[in-house]
From TrEMBL:
Protein name, UniProt field: Aspartate aminotransferase family protein
Gene source species: Azorhizobium oxalatiphilum
Cofactor field: pyridoxal 5'-phosphate
Segments traversing the membrane: none
Top-level taxon: Bacteria
Family membership noted in the UniProt record: Belongs to the class-III pyridoxal-phosphate-dependent aminotransferase family.
Cross-referenced SUPFAM superfamilies: PLP-dependent transferases
InterPro entries noted in UniProt: Aminotrans_3, Aminotrans_3_PPA_site, PyrdxlP-dep_Trfase, PyrdxlP-dep_Trfase_major, PyrdxlP-dep_Trfase_small
Keywords: Aminotransferase, Pyridoxal phosphate, Transferase
UniProt GO MF annotations: pyridoxal phosphate binding; transaminase activity
């Protein structure tokens, strides 16, 4: 496998040449919260794959639902006046759990396409309601919104912009609400307000009549699990409302229970106009994402009539819809969102935040089942390591792999997002491994 991979595969977000020299880790099986490699070693999947496997790996009911669907109707599209039972049922099931005022969903194959859909949908909406000048998007530095031209442009990651001539025009990036790294002398509350005011300054500089929307993840995931101070989101919402700028909550990671609410915007107490989702909705079993469209935009788009010239071959794929319906059924039957909020979430959080006592940990934060540890040589000063940024994080991540726990390193932090089915015993094992990782990294 390694030889075939080395000869023929280009890995996403990887230095393929360096990887080929080292040899990729080959993952061959997954069950519950564990994955297994080709040498038979098992790991706790502390990242749910890529923030996907919400209901745990190897759920037979999802596999059966996909197989049954593909036997019945393997593929048909939802273009040109056709539909199928699964896509209609899934759109209704999403409306049932979405915040009030969200009745309609546009389906895509994943998160990046959902974000691209938002760009086109929002600009089309403003044109349809007679305000075509509103086209600019405000996004944030260090945000991740996907890898397509639109998604990577809205994202604020410099290395991504450097490849492919990004960002596309019409995007303004503002501060991220990252108190630990960028808060300076300000209190978290003041910093949250300051970062929100950056949004206001950007909109006012561009002219509100030119600004279409603000997009943000309720909690920035790939940017390092950045949980904004409580002051941030309510202020951003107020700023957007006052200027008639739409608010887009990118919930590709936070959506479908990760924060202990069905959607991260609910955790943050914010009412957006559009919500993007992917990943957890099928627990990673089938590529499916979409945009849940609030009534205002839906009415503007649909009420005006006319065609929205946008869609993907796999928009509403029958297999993806079956996977999502089966995943939602498990979430309801096992009450998993409530479990994240009131049971395993608080259980893991209390043990996770106690890791802040370790000399290497500056901050240990977690909401629901998404968290980060900021590693620092001097927590009082929130200092960075002398080594090139990210070096210590990668060392810690590699030790963690050896110890049998998958975490991700972002800068010099470790991030975690395990399946919602994690047991208390597995949570204890996980935290014990993290303790050993911290000791070994410190040494
Ligand atoms: N938005 C956010 C917030 C994400 O985290 C991601 C993926 N990590 C995306 C969009 C892109 O989703 P996908 O990889 O499914 O295209």
């Amino acid at each position: 496998w390694r030889a075939l991979d080395a000869a023929h595969h280009i890995h996403p977000f990887s230095d393929t040449k360096a990887l080929n020299a080292e040899g990729a880790r080959v993952i061959t099986r997954a069950e519950g919260v564990h994955i297994f490699d080709s040498e038979g070693k098992s790991y706790i999947d502390g990242m749910s794959g890529l923030w996907c496997s919400a209901v745990g790996h190897g759920r037979g009911a999802i596999v059966d639902a996909i197989a049954d669907q593909l036997r019945q109707l393997d593929y048909y599209n939802t273009f040109f006046k056709t539909t199928h039972p699964g896509v209609a049922e899934l759109a209704a099931a999403i409306a049932q759990v979405a915040p009030p005022g969200f009745q309609r969903t546009f389906f895509t194959s994943g998160g990046s396409e959902a974000v691209d859909t938002v760009i086109r949908m929002v600009r089309h909406y403003w044109a349809a309601v007679g305000k075509p000048s509103k086209h600019i998007f405000i996004a944030r530095r260090n945000a991740y919104h996907g890898s397509t031209m639109g998604g990577a442009s809205l994202g604020g990651m410099k290395p991504m912009h450097a490849q492919g001539g990004l960002p596309i025009p019409g995007i303004i990036h503002v501060a991220q609400p990252y108190w630990w790294g960028e808060g300076g002398d300000m209190s978290p509350e003041d910093f949250g307000l300051w970062a929100a005011q950056e949004v206001a300054r950007a909109i006012d500089a561009a002219g509100p009549e030119n600004v279409a929307a603000f997009i943000g993840e309720p909690i920035q995931g790939a940017g390092g699990v950045i949980i904004p101070p409580a002051t941030y989101w309510p202020e951003v919402q107020k700023i957007c409302r006052e200027r008639d700028v739409l608010l887009v909550s990118d919930e590709v990671i936070c959506g479908f229970g990760r924060t202990g609410e069905w959607f991260g915007c609910q955790y943050m107490g914010v009412e957006p106009d559009l919500i993007t989702f992917a990943k957890g909705v099928t627990s990673g079993t089938f590529p499916l994402g979409g945009v849940i469209v609030g009534d205002r935009v839906a009415e503007g788009l649909i009420g005006q009539g006319g065609e929205f010239h946008h869609g993907y071959t796999y928009s509403g794929h029958p297999g993806g819809c079956a996977a999502a319906l089966a995943t939602l059924k498990i979430m309801h039957e096992e009450d998993l969102v409530a479990r994240v909020k009131s049971d395993i979430g608080p259980y893991l959080q209390s043990r996770w935040t106690a890791l802040a006592e370790h000399p290497l940990v500056g901050e240990a934060r977690m909401v629901g089942l998404i968290g980060a540890l900021e590693l620092t040589p001097d927590k009082a000063r929130r200092a960075r390591f002398a080594a090139e940024e990210g070096t210590v994080g990668l060392i810690a991540r590699d030790i963690s792999f050896r110890e049998g726990l998958v975490m991700r390193a972002v800068r010099d932090s470790l991030i975690l997002a395990p399946p919602f089915t994690l047991s208390e015993g597995e949570a204890d094992d996980l935290v014990a491994i993290v303790g050993r990782v911290l000791d070994a990294t410190w040494a």
